[in-house]
Amino acid sequence: MGMRALVTGGAGFIGRWLVKKLLDEGAEVFVIDNLENGRESNLEEFKSNPLLKQVIYDDILNEKALHSLFEYKPEVVYHLAAQINVHESLENPKKAYDLNIRGTFNVLEKCRALGTRIMLMGTCMVYDMAQSDKPIGENHPLKPSSPYAASKLSAEILAESYYHSYGLPVVTCRPFNTYGPYQKYNMEGGVVSIFVRQALNGENLKVFGDGKQTRDLLYVEDCTEFLYRASLCEEASGQVINAGSGKDIAIMDLARMVCPDESRIKFVSHHHPQAEIPKLLCDYSKANELLDWKPKVRLETGIEKVKQQIRNQCVSA
């Protein structure tokens, strides 16, 4: 029998792929998701899998709902549930505080009571921008430029304190910009899915600002492999670990890759330019050394996988 794993935010984009990974590895999986970012349809294909033990559509701020899942004594908790939208956090910082700090506190307290190992999902948005071609390692300067980034960093520090204070096995994973099939088209961070959908629909591709800002794009199954390995690595306890492709691409070049017709690429003003990070480039050497992990899926291949999933979704709809 495999391990018992609880995934908070398990009906979300990355959560869906992590649930799949865990089920494929023979784990018994429990999920909680409030469906604000997640979708029931993301878990539809796993409903008949006997290893998917329970799915609760509720909030991590609801301690009663959390308690009901921890009664199953999960051996590993993958804490992905969060307020994840930068723009929304600028409009409503309290929501970012409540979900990302108070919600993480609730999960940490439940883990502390059982001594449960926890993989905390961090974000590359806590970093200052990369300098020239030097990638961002875990010791890179921090610069949370939005309440979202600040609340996520606060959650990381809180989790680290549980490691030092109580010996709770905690690992913080900071994947860079993750993309892939099943990502929403209207969500920040889903630039690949947004561009692909616009291109397939014959629409113009909208690029914020001058399009020179760069992102390190990590395919979602590479991301979930990273999260899985980090969660099981004893030496990773108390550590922060980055994961990315090790290559960055300007957003305007990404648009050209998705849609070669430049007349359909339109530049629009940024909603909140103060929260934009001009350059993100990951140094994943620590993940490679500690977890024997490296990305496998090339950007061109990942884009094709996204295109195929969106086409299939349109046909089935």
Structural class: alpha/beta
Q: Could you give the distance between the termini?
A: 38 Å
Q: How many E-type strands? A: 13
Rg: 19 Å
User: What spatial form do the alpha-carbon principal axes imply?
Assistant: globular
Helix/strand order, N-terminal first: EHEEHEHHEHEEHEEEHEEHEHH
Q: Give the helix level as a range of percent.
A: 25-40%
Low-confidence stretches: none
Percent of residues in beta strands? 15-25%
Quaternary structure type = single chain
Major β-sheet profile: 7 strands, parallel
Strand numbers in spatial order across the main sheet:
3-2-1-4-5-6-11
Task: Report a brief summary of the structure.
This protein is α/β, with parallel strands linked by helices. The protein is 39% helix and 16% strand.
Textual characterization of the structure:
This protein has 317 residues and is of the alpha/beta class. It has helices spanning 13-24, 63-70, 86-91, 93-114, 147-166, 191-200, 220-232, 251-258, 285-291, 299-316; strands spanning 4-8, 28-32, 52-56, 76-79, 117-121, 170-175, 177-179, 205-208, 214-215, 217-219, 240-243, 249-250, 265-268. The longest helix is centred in the N-terminal third of the chain and has 22 residues, at 93-114. A seven-stranded parallel beta sheet has the order 3-2-1-4-5-6-11, with helices on both faces.
How is the topology of this model organized?
Layout: E1 4-8, H1 13-24, E2 28-32, E3 52-56, H2 63-70, E4 76-79, H3 86-91, H4 93-114, E5 117-121, H5 147-166, E6 170-175, E7 177-179, H6 191-200, E8 205-208, E9 214-215, E10 217-219, H7 220-232, E11 240-243, E12 249-250, H8 251-258, E13 265-268, H9 285-291, H10 299-316
Parallel strand pairs: 1-2, 1-4, 2-3, 4-5, 5-6, 6-11, 7-10, 8-13
Antiparallel strand pairs: 9-12
